[in-house]
Each structure stands twice: as structure tokens, then as C-alpha cells.
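queue> pop job 88
queue> type: inverse folding (structure -> sequence)
queue> payload:
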């Protein structure tokens, strides 16, 4: 990091005649501000991710919540956290700026973790303790549930504020257009940032989970709260060093303006001759594309004197939008079907609560002294993903580039499809392993003794975790690259926001699926597939159901790929289209750019 700071200083142009006032901006930002931002994001991830794996045990044992209900609560918690990331991005872009949104998120997360810690410390905030699988356990009171769910809510607000803004805020510190090596500095920052995320996730899934298993909930929840205190203070300590970019117009508002303007002009004919469009800042785009033509009305100028100011800007942006705004919204709408194909793989990846319960009933020893915590098995997914990404980038892509002539190796849609197939395979393996585990537990006489550890190694769960890691490496990264390639450059931030929103939808789908399966399978007095005692339930049937849904989703994905058509890089294609438009001078009014694909 020190070397990078030195490089940055050497790369900054010098000017002996620069006044003291013009020197002030150069004192802000740069790599000197990076430790405060990365520590804030890393500690927030260690604290929040470390709470998730064992939370199902806390809900079941501390609050006497059934397995299906507890899993639904955790699904909803994740869904709200991911959905609020869209709100956080909107607030930072349109109103408060990234610094204040991250600061707000840090203190909201701290408040939530403190409340959660208090539920473990103060006995009155939980129901009276009882035997884990007793039928006479008292339910939590409304007040106790309000405190618990409030802690989840504050942590969701914190995650929604910090996660969408942290990377962009770090890039703001280094994004100096006058620096010839600006792009290399940004790439270096992204490497450090992603490395910190990987390390944070591994620490959360190992050390924090280990503390909870061996020191109890008071210490296990207290440590994340302390880490969040450090996270918030570190971020504030660096305040004087930060570059704080001023708030600009949000893309989200621009999308709404296009819809409103097109709706207000819905009776305007699109086939009229001599139609004049509002170019905006990019005069190279002569006319909008023919895809989703109904939106083209938003950028049609009806009367230049009534619609435009003297300098060319629209008098009312809710009546007249630019071609660029219209095409940006079209690009977003076109990828929605492809985006929806990613829900099921995320649903399959989010079955961690049940996998943790499985691991808790199995032999988790590595040798006579080492025992892996039940909540730490997810780390095998992270490790597999990290290793495969490195191998794919360094070895597979160069090889495929030589064989296929494509510099990126496999196409984005191909990788997305491979990920979907691997997720279905992982769920099938999960179902087979659970069927074997359940049969062995019953044969060993543990049908009504779920707290007993059976004579079957939990290492049998590792293959499914590794397959999930490969599935995520192919599909998730492929999805994000697909969005980046299909969106104009001004929509780069939307790509990650769209993926995050997909995670929120997937969590909602997972929550509803658990509720429906639990309610449907326990009708007539039958034991639910998702019983509190997995040995009496049929978790394997539930896994097979998700496997079938993943296969159906893959068929749907193939249909969406066919409907979408070729997916060339929209940014490169747009440059070619603009050159063609500028060369065509015979009939400018009839010129049409090829569709963004």
C-alpha cells in the first residue's frame, strides 16, 4: 500500500506556479484515504456475515421458533438488506452523497448489532429457556420479537447504505481524469477491495462462527458489535482526507422521467415526417432505435420554443428527455427477462440454514482435535469460487482465446447457462446426501434424537458446497459482465444494483417457497418436510423440488437467450453505430441506429 501511495504521488502532475488555493484539492483523496474506507467495509462484512450462519440456532434455541419459520425470517432479512441497497444507491446519488450515506449506514448497523447483543445479555428480552425439542416451550412475546426484528431492520438499513456506496466512494478518491495512469490506479484499488472482501468473508465464516460456538451468544454477538464500533470510528477519522463528490441527477429519476414523458405524449404519432429528437449532450446519436418504439415519444420535440431553453436544455425534463435517456431505459428493460433467470440459482445458493442444521447432526471432526463449526462449511463455497476465478482468468481464458479466437473465452450467456446447470447438479447432490444421512440416522436409532451426532462425516457436504461455488463463479460473474456489456457506460452502476435486486427477489422467493412447502406437507397431521427434527422430516424431498425448479428455469433461460438474440458489446457497438450515422449524410432525418444488443 505504501508503494502505491508513492506511485500515486509520482504520477500527479506538478506545477511550480500553482497557487495555495489550487493545491488544496490535491491533499484530499488518494491511497492515503483507502485504509479508512476498506477497514469500514471489511469490518462491516465480518460483523454482519459472521451473524448469519448460526442465526438459525439462535432463533430455534433462544426464541423457540420452528425451523421453517426461522428460515423464512432469515430469507426476509437478506431480502430486505439487498433491496435497501437500491435505496442506499438512490439516496447517495440524488440527495445525501456517498459519505453521509455510508456514515448513516455504519451507525445504523452498530445500533442493530448492539440491540442483538442486548437480546443475548438481558434475559427478559427472550422467552424462558427450555429443552430444545420440547413441545412445551413458551413463545416469544410481541415486545421480545419487536426488539429482535428491530435489530435485524437496523442492520439491513446499514448494509443497504454501506455496500452499494463503499466501492464507488473508494473509486472517487482515485478517479483523477488528468492523471495518465488513472485507470491503473483504479484497477489496483479494485484488487485491494475484492481481496479485502474475500478475507472478510472467510474470517466471518470461521473465526466469528467459532467464537459463537465456543464462547456463547453474549461474546459471539459482542465481538461483531465491537468490530462495528471500530468500523464506524475509522470511517469518521478519515473524513478530512476524503474527496466528497457532489450529488448529481440520478439515473433512476431519469428512467421515471422517460416513462412520464412518453405517457404524456402517448397520442403523438411516431410515423410522422421530419420528427425532431432531443440529442442532449451527445449530438452523435441522431435518432433512437426501433426497439420499444413507444418510448421514443419521450425525446420528440413538439415545439422547440416551448420545449427548449435558449441553451438547448429542456424547459421541463418531465415532458422532454434526451435520446440517451430513452436508450438507457430500453437497455434496462431488454435485460429484465435474462435477469429473471438468475432467481433460482440464488434460491439454491441460499439454503445455508438447512445445510447448517445438517452439519450440526453429523461428525464434523478433522482428526482427533479439530472440529469444524457447523456454520463454517459455507467457507468451502467461497474458497472454490476464489480458486476457480483465479484459474479461469489466468489459465482457461488464454487457452480458450487461442482455440476460439474470443479474447474473453466463454461468452457471458454461456457461463450463465453453465452456472444454472451446476446449481441444479448441486441441489441433486444435496438431495442424495440428505437421503443417505437421514436413513443412517434412523438406522442408528436417532429418529427422535436430533441432538445426537450420528456416525457419518460432515465432509460429505463439501462436494455440494464446492459445486455451489462453481455455479456462483460461472453464473453470478457472468451475469454482472453481461449487464456491463449490454448497458451504455453511464449505466455501469445499474449493473451491480440490478444483481443486488435479483438477490433480494430470490430471498423473497425462497421465503415464500419454505412457507408453502411447510404448510402443504404438514396437512392432515403429517410431519412437515421441513420439520424442526430433520430426521423425521424429508429435507431431501425439498431439495429435489428445488432441483426440478432449477431444471425448468434452465429451459426458461434457453428461451430467453433465443428471444434476446446476439449479445454483442453494446458499448463497442454504439461507437460503430455513431460512425455509421455520421457517414450517412444523404437523409439524416431517416437515419436509424441499429438496436442495442
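queue> result:
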Amino acid at each position: 500500500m505504501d508503494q502505491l501511495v508513492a506511485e500515486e504521488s509520482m504520477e500527479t502532475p506538478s506545477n511550480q506556479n500553482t497557487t495555495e488555493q489550487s493545491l488544496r484539492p490535491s491533499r484530499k483523496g488518494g491511497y492515503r484515504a483507502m485504509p479508512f474506507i476498506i477497514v469500514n467495509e471489511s469490518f462491516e462484512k465480518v460483523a454482519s456475515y459472521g451473524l448469519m450462519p448460526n442465526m438459525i440456532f439462535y432463533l430455534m434455541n433462544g426464541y423457540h421458533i420452528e425451523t421453517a419459520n426461522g428460515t423464512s425470517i432469515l430469507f426476509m432479512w437478506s431480502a430486505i438488506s439487498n433491496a435497501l441497497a437500491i435505496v442506499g444507491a438512490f439516496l447517495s446519488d440524488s440527495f445525501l452523497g456517498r459519505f453521509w450515506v455510508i456514515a448513516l449506514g455504519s451507525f445504523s448497523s452498530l445500533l442493530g448489532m448492539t440491540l442483538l447483543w442486548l437480546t443475548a445479555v438481558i434475559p427478559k428480552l427472550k422467552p424462558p429457556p427450555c429443552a430444545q425439542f420440547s413441545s412445551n416451550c413458551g413463545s416469544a412475546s410481541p415486545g421480545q420479537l419487536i426488539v429482535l426484528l428491530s435489530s435485524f431492520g437496523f442492520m439491513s438499513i446499514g448494509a443497504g447504505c454501506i455496500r452499494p456506496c463503499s466501492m464507488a466512494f473508494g473509486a472517487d478518491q482515485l478517479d483523477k481524469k488528468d492523471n495518465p495512469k488513472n485507470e491503473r490506479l483504479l484497477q489496483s484499488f479494485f484488487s485491494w477491495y475484492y481481496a479485502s472482501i474475500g478475507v472478510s468473508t472467510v474470517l466471518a465464516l470461521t473465526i466469528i462462527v467459532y467464537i459463537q460456538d465456543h464462547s456463547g451468544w453474549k461474546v459471539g454477538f459482542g465481538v461483531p458489535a465491537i468490530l462495528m464500533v471500530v468500523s464506524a470510528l475509522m470511517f469518521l477519522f478519515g473524513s478530512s482526507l476524503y474527496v466528497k463528490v457532489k450529488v448529481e441527477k440520478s439515473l433512476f429519476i431519469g428512467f421515471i422521467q422517460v416513462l412520464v414523458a412518453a405517457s404524456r405524449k402517448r397520442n403523438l404519432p411516431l410515423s410522422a415526417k421530419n420528427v425532431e429528437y432531443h440529442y442532449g449532450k451527445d449530438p452523435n446519436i441522431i435518432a433512437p432505435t426501433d426497439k420499444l418504439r413507444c418510448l421514443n415519444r419521450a425525446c420528440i420535440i413538439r415545439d422547440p420554443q416551448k420545449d427548449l431553453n435558449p441553451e438547448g436544455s429542456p424547459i421541463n425534463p418531465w415532458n422532454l428527455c434526451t435520446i440517451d435517456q430513452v436508450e438507457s431505459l430500453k437497455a434496462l428493460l431488454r435485460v429484465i427477462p435474462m435477469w429473471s433467470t438468475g432467481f433460482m440459482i440464488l434460491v439454491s445458493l441460499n439454503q445455508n440454514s438447512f445445510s447448517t442444521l445438517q452439519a450440526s447432526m453429523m461428525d464434523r471432526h478433522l482428526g482427533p482435535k479439530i472440529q469444524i463449526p457447523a456454520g463454517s462449511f459455507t467457507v468451502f463455497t467461497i474458497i472454490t469460487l476464489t480458486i476457480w476465478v483465479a484459474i479461469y482468468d489466468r489459465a482457461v481464458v488464454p487457452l480458450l482465446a487461442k482455440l476460439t479466437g474470443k479474447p474473453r473465452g466463454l461468452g457471458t450467456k454461456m457461463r450463465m447457462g453453465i452456472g444454472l446447470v451446476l446449481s441444479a447438479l448441486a441441489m441433486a447432490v444435496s438431495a442424495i446426501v440428505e437421503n443417505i444421512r437421514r436413513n443412517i440416522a434412523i438406522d442408528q436409532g436417532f429418529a427422535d434424537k436430533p441432538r445426537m451426532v450420528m456416525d457419518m462425516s460432515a465432509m460429505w457436504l463439501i462436494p455440494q458446497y464446492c459445486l455451489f461455488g462453481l455455479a456462483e463463479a460461472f453464473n453470478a460473474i457472468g451475469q454482472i459482465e453481461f449487464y456491463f456489456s449490454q448497458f451504455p457506460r453511464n449505466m455501469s452502476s445499474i449493473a451491480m444494483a440490478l444483481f443486488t435486486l435479483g438477490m433480494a427477489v430470490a430471498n423473497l422467493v425462497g421465503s415464500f417457497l419454505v412457507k408453502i412447502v411447510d404448510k402443504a406437507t404438514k396437512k392432515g397431521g403429517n410431519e412437515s418436510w421441513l420439520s424442526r427434527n430433520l430426521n423425521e422430516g424429508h429435507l431431501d424431498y425439498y431439495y429435489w423440488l428445488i432441483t426440478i425448479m432449477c431444471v425448468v428455469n434452465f429451459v426458461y433461460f434457453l428461451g430467453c437467450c433465443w428471444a434476446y438474440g446476439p449479445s454483442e458489446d453494446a458499448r463497442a457497438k454504439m461507437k460503430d453505430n455513431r460512425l455509421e450515422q455520421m457517414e450517412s449524410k444523404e437523409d439524416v432525418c431517416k437515419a436509424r441506429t441499429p438496436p442495442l444488443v
